[in-house]
Amino acid sequence: MAVAPFFDFMPRIARMVIPEMSLHVVQRGHDQQDCFFNESDYLAYLGYLREFAERFGCSVHAYCLMTNHVHLFMTPRRANACSQVMKFTGQYYVNRINRRLERSGTLWEGRFYSGLVPSERYALTCYRYIELNPVEARMVRHPADYRWSSYTANVRPSSDSFLSRHPVYETLGIDDATRAAGYMALFDVPLEPKLVDDIRKATRGGYVAGAPRKRGRPPRSQDPEKQGLSLFTENRDCP
After folding, report:
1. SS3 154
2. What string of DSSP letters covers 114-138?
3. For residue 177, what is the enclosing H or E element?
4. CATH of the domain at 116
5. pTM value?
6. Are the C-beta atoms of 13 and 206 separated by less than 8 Å?
């Protein structure tokens, strides 16, 4: 049975979410400032992410916590699951930082960005794009050298990991060992620039990676003003 898309309308951009279709999610620090300041901050964020992903029904496949932004690869099981996970994870984390550093206000640039990842090809690219972020930033030489990404958990699956395997991961081998070897081998192959560009644009614009885009307002049937809908949703309050 086909599932109708959920349009999370925000000013200028309607974020599309389809239950059981994966998303690449990015949230950036305000004015490109740091969001993580010591080891305990990274651990706290991952703890909140684990808690709220389980609570609201969102599978997390990959992540990378950079100093001033976050990348996530997730599959929501309900239309509003991703919004809820990001809202509560962000708010709890900011409250913790504010108490510890005796500061006020938010750390985040504003709303998070997300784009649909529609196929196996894009899913494998999204995995690598996220976990190669520290390499591209010249922070480390190999993703295995960066502690705050999911690379190690994806090549050495363990029972205490909160990650869920994307279906495409399962196709990499017949057992855990061959899947892990297949996953590691992916990182010996350069990323395809076009696929990465598609993912970046879709994430920023809130649409499906690789889909052709038309300029102008959304169709009348999807235009919130024509439907009498508010341009603001629960994500208005998301940090």
Report:
1. helix
2. EEEE-SHHHHHHHHHHHHTHHHHTT
3. helix 176-186
4. 3.30.70.1290
5. 0.83
6. yes
